[in-house]
Design a protein that fits this description.
Helix content is 69%, strand content 0%. The chain is mostly helical. The structure holds magnesium ion (MG). Residues 91, 98, 141, 144-145 line the site of magnesium ion (MG).
C-alpha cells in the first residue's frame, strides 16, 4: 500500500464525478437555499454552498455518490445485465433502490433531513428538474436522488448549526 490517503482519493473521485455529470456545488447550494430560505433571515448562497461542501466530506456520502453514479453510467453504456439494465435505464418507478441509497445520505445530520428530502423530491426545483428531463439522453436514475439527498442533509446541517449559534448567543 502506498502512503496515499484512500479517503482523499474517494472524496476527490466523488466530487469529480458529480461535476462530470453536470452538477455544480452551486446547483446543490441553490437547492439548500430553496429549502432553508423561508426559515432564516438573509441566508446567503455562500452559507448554503459551505454546508454542501461539509456534507461531501463525509465518507458515507462519497460512497453513495460513487455507487449511484457508477450504475447510472453503466446503464447509459448498456453495460448492465437484464433486467437491471432496463430497470435503471428507464428509471422505473417501482425500483426504489435509488431512493434507498439516497437515504444513507439523508440521515447523516439527523431526521430533519428526511423531511427535506421528501419535500424536494416531490417539488424537484432547479437542477433536480434538469436531471429528471429524460430528453437529455443521459441516465440520472441514481444521481437525482443523491443530489436531492445531499441538499437535504446540508439543509439539516445548516439548521442545526444556526440553532447552535442561537444557543451560544
Ligand atoms: Mg431516481
Amino acid at each position: 500500500m502506498s502512503e496515499q490517503n484512500p479517503k482523499t482519493d474517494l472524496e476527490e473521485k466523488a466530487r469529480n464525478w458529480i461535476k462530470e455529470r453536470g452538477v455544480t456545488l452551486r446547483d446543490i447550494g441553490e437547492l439548500v437555499h430553496y429549502l432553508q430560505a423561508p426559515y432564516h433571515d438573509s441566508l446567503s448562497i455562500e452559507d448554503c454552498i459551505e454546508n454542501v461542501d461539509k456534507v461531501l466530506s463525509k465518507r458515507e456520502v462519497q460512497n453513495a455518490v460513487i455507487t449511484g453514479i457508477q450504475l447510472d453510467v453503466l446503464a447509459e453504456q448498456n453495460q448492465l445485465t437484464s433486467p437491471l439494465q432496463e430497470t435503471i435505464a428507464s428509471d422505473e418507478g417501482l425500483y426504489g433502490i435509488d431512493e434507498i441509497i439516497a437515504l444513507s445520505i439523508v440521515n447523516v445530520y439527523g431526521s430533519i433531513g428526511f423531511t427535506n428530502y421528501g419535500y424536494i423530491d416531490k417539488e424537484k426545483p432547479g437542477i433536480l428538474k434538469k436531471l429528471n428531463d429524460k430528453s437529455s439522453g443521459q441516465c440520472h436514475t441514481f444521481l437525482d436522488d443523491i443530489i436531492g439527498a445531499i441538499a437535504a442533509a446540508a439543509s439539516s446541517r445548516l439548521a442545526h448549526s444556526v440553532a447552535k449559534d442561537e444557543e451560544l448567543d
